[in-house]
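pls read this protein:
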Amino acid sequence: MMGKVGINVQPLVSVIVPVYNAERYLLKCIDSLLTQTYSNIELLLVNDGSKDGSGNICDDYARKDSRIRVIHLENGGVSRARNKALEIMKGDWVCFADSDDEVTPTYVQHFVDAIEDNVDIIIAGAKFVHEDGRQTVLGYKKYGILSLPEIFSDNEITAHGYAWSKCYRASHIRSNTYNKMLRFPEEIKFSEDLIFVMQYLAISPKAKYISSSDYIYYLRSTSASGRVFPFKVENCCLNRYIELIHELSRQAGMELMELQAVGSILSMLFARVRNSMYRIGELSKTERIAFYQSQSLSVYQYILQNNHFSNILVRIGYILFMHGAHWRWLDAYFYVMIGIVGKMVRR
């Protein structure tokens, strides 16, 4: 078949599942992965210091199926758990699943069927199951092998930067491809999946979209999206996102930040940093103003352009003080709005 010359028709696919206190859901997750129509897989279950029976469940399954390997760690977070598995995986390709989700029997098969020599990442859709039982399907505007501008504009990768429902050529992760070792950023606690996907695209933008939606994601109320992390953690994510967008813009030959989906994530990440400065109270007034001054004018331009989803009080503050670079007034405004009013102001 054209485009598939030299491909291993039965590549080993590593499936990585980080596990933490997931005994309520873990059986269904593992069972869905073991009943794949494509059987040449290795399943890496990473027990991230679970305090419930998750670790025992992993060990029980490993005794029954030789394709399963279990890693037991002290609790260190989902990125560290995934990275430990990436260090020991044996697969030609690798994909991910979360321990409280499920996949259809053709999750891996559809990835394998889509493999081509000039493709390094395969991206599929997903099914979202809401807490009230409703189901929605994530699909894309374009399918096939796409360029970077199409990946970011038409298919809005920044809005769908999940680690799961994607399959990655393992050689770029396992080795020092282009002098860059691909790992999940352990210092980042929010949007780490998106950062990983963008890092992969920066090394190899050879992406192929397929129309299958085999990943079943359960939307649960326990989410990191509403949690505010320390300033250093939030700011690290913002800076890494900006750095990667600049690199990918250079490769794409266009300013990706001008795209609404890309600029919207920038605005959201900036809001998280802003909120951390006032809600946690780590920084002095001088340090907060220094943060505002450290951002480029172009960053503020894109934030102002993509601020329509923000709280009305946030928009007022940005229009009054960010537009004119009145950083002391901006700091005073949000000190009052967030520090005193508190929960009233959220992006």
Observations:
- The first strand starts at residue 13 and ends at 19.
